Amino acid sequence: MNITIQLLYLFSSVLFIIGIKMMNKTKDARAGNLLSSVGMLIAIVATLMQIEVISMVEIFICILIGSLIGLYYAYKVEMTQIPEMVALFNGFGGLASVAVAISDYWFKSQISVANIDIIILVSIILSVFIGGITFTGSMVAFLKLNGRITGSPITFKGQHPLNLIMLISFILASVAIWMNPSDINFMIILVLISLVLGILTVIPIGGADMPVVISLLNSYSGMAACTTGFILNNNVLIVAGALVGASGIILTQIMCKAMNRSLVNVLLGGFGQTVAGEQAEGPSIVVKEVGVEEAAMLFDGASSVIVVPGYGMAVAQAQHVIRELMEQCEKRNISFKFAIHPVAGRMPGHMNVLLAEANISYDKLIEMDEINNEFSNTDLVFVVGANDVVNPAAQTNPQSPIFGMPILNAFKARTIIVSKRSMGKGYAGVENELFGYPNCLMLFGDAKQTIAKVVSEIKEL
Amino acid sequence: MSIDSLIILIYVLVLASYLGFELIAKVPPTLHTPLMSGSNAISGITIVGALLACNELGYTTLSKWMGMIALVLATINVVGGYAVTDRMLKMFKK
After folding, report:
1. Contact A71 B80 (CB under 8 A)
2. Do B37 and A82 count as a contact with CB atoms less than 8 A apart?
3. Which of residues 21-60 of B touch A (CB under 8 A)?
4. DSSP assignment letter at B55
5. Which residues face A60 on adjacent strands?
6. What is the DSSP letter of B78?
7. Whose CB has fewer CB within 10 Å in chain B, the N or C terminal residue?
8. Do residues A341 and A73 make contact, with C-beta atoms less than 8 angstroms apart?
9. CB distance from B92 to chain A under 8 Å?
10. Has the ipTM of the complex gone over 0.90?
């Protein structure tokens, strides 16, 4: 192989590494992302150097189509929809790996007469397996996230044995293809099984667990790229794939820890379904309501406010009125911060992006471990569209399905106002004890409208 | 492929994974969403494989078609992933 090309691949691997390293600091992150994209461009140029000129027209057209679609979605997407877009792109990456594997398999088994090397064949099979699961799994996650299929777990009897049978069939078909590499039927079986497995493994997982699933699928797409690297004997694919694989695994671990669940428990699915039934029998909670005028007075009288945002805030598009609320409070020298739970939103760090979009400085967003001691010295906590992450049952009620999950200690504040559309349950389907606490007041209504009213009331005070 | 080159690839895989764990563990939670969409773009490195697969010269066969499909998909993943990450990171202000 050409030495220049190899050195360019090395250079591009280094740029990926430096790019990710620069994501360690918020101020450098944008430059890091740019550096990483330059690395990608170099890898593409190095690859084009090995390609016959005659193929260039089709390649150019494909890249043009892909770029236009990619840019269109990247600039059109709302920040609330980022999780589903990541899921969608992730799925495309997985399917691309499957297509590359099939292409290589077809070329080696049908066109060139030579036998397929066993190492290459194993890499092809793994690429089909991981890429196929990534594709359909991501598509199911995408459909669940944008509500086109139900967010609640879909389970049926014999689900796990069925998965096991599929897995065993996959292994058998792999052995068959090893013994008879040119039989395309076995390859079709492998592709179909991995596609079906991707669907079966994600449908039983509930909407609340989506941050874990997206992280895990992200990791799979990296692993799929790695297997492509083994097929093509190419280091840059392996380095880039390994970085993504590691990133996905770390985020998966963080998400699981933040929900006090094991990965196996998340993957087996069904969470939030049985729970809703058990909880319905419990005593109902008596809540106290608060009006916008009174809420405005509470804000005006406080010296410190912590906002706990949840996905509900994003749905109501309330982040901009919250910034106005922040500006009013800061004019009155009221300390104003945000407490961010690791699983708030539909993917890791989702709240931060939504608040950044509303021009809220990122040094006001405080992580759970850092802010949890401050709640007891806080006058007012304002919970907007968050539920399970402030439920004290996680600490007090061993019977609760969320018992043991780390929560934001909002209940320790002097007063808590909860902005909520209605008395519906959280995503985990659990009753929230906090709402019945004597220091907790409910501000019912659409978050955006009610907060806007509160802001105008504060202005008049 | 020889066992020797396989071993080298495994070396690269193991060391790069270790490096990945070290680097990503230090990324602050504030940046987890851009990290994920950015790393998602990096996983579009499959584009290299897709380009090579498009190069099955002289055959209008399945190989080439698969390569072209892979190329479109991987390009969406790469271009869209980097663009949306940049769009997000632009908003992070102090």
Report:
1. yes
2. yes
3. 21, 23-57, 59
4. T
5. none
6. I
7. C
8. no
9. yes
10. yes
Residue pointed to by tokens 């690429």: A127
Contact A281, B70 (CB under 8 A): no
Q: Count the Cβ atoms, other than its own, within 10 Å of residue A460.
A: 7
Q: What would the mean pLDDT of A108-129 be, rounded to a whole number? A: 85
Cα A348 from chain centroid (whole Å)? 6
What percent of chain B lies above the pLDDT cut of 70?
95
Going by C-alpha positions, the residue among B83, B61, B60, B63 that lies closest to residue B71 is B63
pLDDT per residue over A191-202, tens digit each? 999 999 999 999
* The pLDDT value given to residue A265: 82
Collapse the DSSP code of A442 into the 3-class scheme (helix H, G, I; strand E, B; otherwise coil) and give the result: strand
Give the closest residue to A92 by CA, choosing from A147, A152, A136: A136
Longest Cα pair distance anywhere in chain B, in angstroms? 56
Q: Do B33 and A347 touch (CB under 8 A)?
A: yes
Say yes or no for a CB contact (<8 Å) between B32 and A52: no
Judged against a pLDDT cut of 70, whether residue A104 lies above it is answered with: yes
pLDDT in tens, A392-447: 989 988 888 888 899 999 999 999 999 988 776 666 667 788 998 999 999 999 99
Which residues neighbour A248 within 8 Å (Cβ) at sequence distance 6 or greater? A215, A216, A217, A218, A219, A220, A221, A222, B36, B39
- What whole-number distance in Å separates Cα of residue A85 and Cα of residue A78? 10
Chain B interface includes A229 (CB < 8 A):
yes
Q: Is the pLDDT of residue A109 over 50?
A: yes
Q: Residue range A17-27: average pLDDT?
A: 94
Q: Which residue of A has its CA nearest to B57?
A: A55
Among A104, A209, A300, A388, the active-site one is A388
Q: What is the pLDDT of residue A236?
A: 95
Question: Which of B26, B36, B71 is nearest residue A59 as measured by Cβ atoms?
Answer: B71
User: Which pTM value belongs to this model?
Assistant: 0.90
Residue environment code for A316-355, b if the CB has 16+ CB neighbours within 10 A, otherwise e? bbbbebbbbbbebbeeeebebbbbbbbbbbbbbbbbbbbb
pLDDT per position as a tens digit, A130-180: 999 999 999 999 999 888 888 788 888 888 899 999 999 999 999 999 888
Q: Which strand (E) or helix (H) includes residue A307? A: strand A304-309
Chain A CB contacts of B51 below 8 Å: 44, 47-48, 51, 59
Predicted confidence band of residue A274 (pLDDT cuts 50, 70, 90): very low
Instruction: Give mean pLDDT, residues A65-90.
Output: 94
Min distance B36 CA to chain A CA atoms (Å): 7
Interface check A330 vs B, CB under 8 A: no
**B94 min Cα distance to partner chain A (Å):** 4
Verify whether residue A117 is a known catalytic residue.
no
